[in-house]
Here is the input.
Amino acid sequence: MTMANEPHPFYNVGPGDIIQDTLDSLGWRQEDLAAITGLSVKSINKLINNKQQITVETAKLLGLAFSTSAEMWLNLDARHQLRKLESNTDRDKFVEKKAQLSRVMPLGEMKKKGWLLYDDSIEGLTKECLNLFCSEEIPPTYNTDSLEFYVRQTNINEEYTKSFSKTWYYYAKTQAKTIEIPSYDQKKLESLAQNLYLFTTRDKGVEKVIEALYSCGVGFFVLSHLTKTYLDGAAFLVEGKPFIVYTGRYDRIDNFWFVLAHELSHVLKHFQYLESPFLDNLDYRDSLSDIEKEADAYASSYLHTEQILEIGKDIGKYLTPARLNLLEKETQVSLPVALGILVHYKLLDYRQIMKFRQSVKDKIPPEYIKG
Here is the structure.
């Protein structure tokens, strides 16, 4: 039987009580024990009143004085101290719940991001569970495969990748619920997808494409990834409405457009599956499902990838102004995006295009950034 399951005595008997009983049975005084052990009378008095913990050295002296083992006194003191701590149930529950939650979410990171606002209390953590899971506890199915999702992931930290990705998804849903969007218009979205490449060359193209998504009834926002999740983007339904989320894991304009095109493909081609979220790590390309391959194919067509690769294979090492102008003119895709695609397909080295790379985060209006 573990100590947690044992009945708790009304009075917490400590080693001092046993010392006093032993002194009484032997007819000794505190001064006698002090003289025998070499401890001060003051120390003996504190031990008897359970106000001084027993050290290894003291346990050995008591064992010699009373013809017992030193371990007995250490065990008596340890059990006494543990029983004292058991009275602090709120603190114990807080530590237990915090440890439980830490297995499925990076609590410190989420608190630093401002996603969690709990104080150091069990009530605070319970409130956060309600906000995330609509339950005071982690759902029983959380660590099982009952919540299916499509995610490209490596086998490194696989357990944490799945759990932290689920937590990211739960938090993303809480943000999506605060956003109002019109009814979903598939035909309008199909038209937007077919003309997606044009937005890459427009002034404020990032802002305009987000506005266009909303007009099609598709919500969009930025939510940074969590450690060990390696997420680039996501597509899912909330209350029947589609949402696309961009993490900005790579702050590059070419990454933004490909992630957007990929998640847009999921909304258009895999709407029936969106109740289970698509959580995508677009670096990981091994063992792709047919659904992911299809999303890649449509995303590539939206960004004229075949044309970019056809022209790009002749560019070679020398990125002359004439060749770059030809690439942008023929494909109608902005140069930073087209060059990023060529790097992705290893027709160029990333060091060749460093001066052409652009940040994307500064192009996204702050009202679309959720954390």
